[in-house]
Amino acid sequence: QVQLVESGGGLVxxxxxxxLSCAASGIVFSINAMDWYRQVPGKQRxxxxxxxxxxxxxxxxxxxxRFTISxxxxxxxxxxxxxxxxxxxxAVYFCNARGLQLGGTRFDSWGQGIQVTVSS
Length: 120
Fold this sequence. Notes:
Helices cover about 0% and strands about 60% of the residues.
């Protein structure tokens, strides 16, 4: 399995930037994709951004043009650069990793989440 640890969250004023990091540890065969999700109380967790091992990325419409996901080739470190932050970006952000374990079985791991608060 993969253990994920997020960092870089905090309190920031609207219009400013933050960069979240997600560090993966553990021995696996491959990490095929890493995602950032976010969740606010009372709402479903939503996909914010994804990057695959092939370098493809996708974003939620609400963050396109403002957020950028990036990572190293092995996807054991992934970043989410968040620019022009808005109060509606306030949420707990979670890192998610999907891939294959050494035995060939799939894994789907989550970090513990990190708070991002954007003040108006």
